[in-house]
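Just scan my protein:

. . .
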Amino acid sequence: MEKLPNQTDSQDLMHIRHTIQSMEMPVDSFSDKIMNRLEEKNRRSSKTKRMKKTLVAASTAAALGAGIIGSGFVSPAMAESLENIPLVSNVFKLAGDLGLRTAHEKGLITEGNQSDTQDGITISVPQVMYDGTRVSMAIHRKVPGLTSYLNGSHVNTDGEVILEPEGAKGTIQRVDLFMNGKPLTHLTEFAHQINVGWGPGVDKDSAVLSFSDLSNQGLGDPAFPEQFDLTMKLTLEGVNDPFTINVPVKKSTNNNIVLSPGMTKEFDHIRVTLEKAELTPITTRVSIVEDGTSSEIPKKYKRDDKTTILQLGYDVFDDHGTRLELLGGQGNDERAERYTYNDFIYEPFKVTPKSFTIKPFLYVYKDKNENHSEPVKEYIKELEMTIPVAK
């Protein structure tokens, strides 16, 4: 008998659906196909995963929706033009988001060749990027005759998300991280665990893995230092022992713009505060605190009747009205007494703006039958914030 998703799983899947539908997707948007496959995988999984009280699962959405090469949308002309390009050393350039492509172009990445071999499979980390806000690593798999996608999924030319079968050998199953020998993931105290996401690379044997610190989670966790030794233990399906790779990580950007405006907007008994924003050539990071303490907050803002977690989304626009792509994020309300700390990662501004605007929104259904209609964004003008950027 198939395992049905529990209530928390279903809620998180719905939030992933909303996030995917907010992204610009190729081929007339195949967000529903992605969600159908995600839900199918969730139903058939025999593993029970405890989930942090998290507000955002965008890294999953981005992982399935991004990467024209990793997704399988490669024309014959493009394939021919790529024949002479060393894919292993160009993962960020060919499959990364705008920030990673910029990092590659500006020489803001660290090249390496750290690797480990288990059961005839070699895993290496050819590229690392750290800009003070997120760490991204290109992961490469070398093994003869293995057809599975390292990432665990890909999108075919018909726009269908193809998940590898349960237990497919050679796909990423688990990632454990250690900073200077101390664990960052799978700690005893769940609230302090780093969230790690991975997405498609340039081909079936590559992937891009990313994570950020927890300094914006309201739990007193420090920011990552400018330089540290990272140990990654990567577990693949069908391989008994994890691959252990030591990676030196060093911040590659200078003069990041860090803003701490403490700007607060209030509407419908909701208080939203912009605690911090950090702008780098590679990433835009925004920390927002939601005050959900009022008992008068209308039902439409809540995930359900039993929770204090709000279901607001946030778009970021530059001073010319261009929206930044959301790459991922994390959040929690652990011990926060009905305050929620959100930490969002967006693509960088192409040019440092004179100001930028954060627009909170809700997803609403225009059709009463939610199962047969697409949600649309309803921006909340009263909670909108415009932040000046001093150069």
Q: What stands out?
A: DSSP finds six helices and 21 strands in the chain. Residues 248 and 271 are 41 Å apart (CA to CA). The radius of gyration is 21 Å.
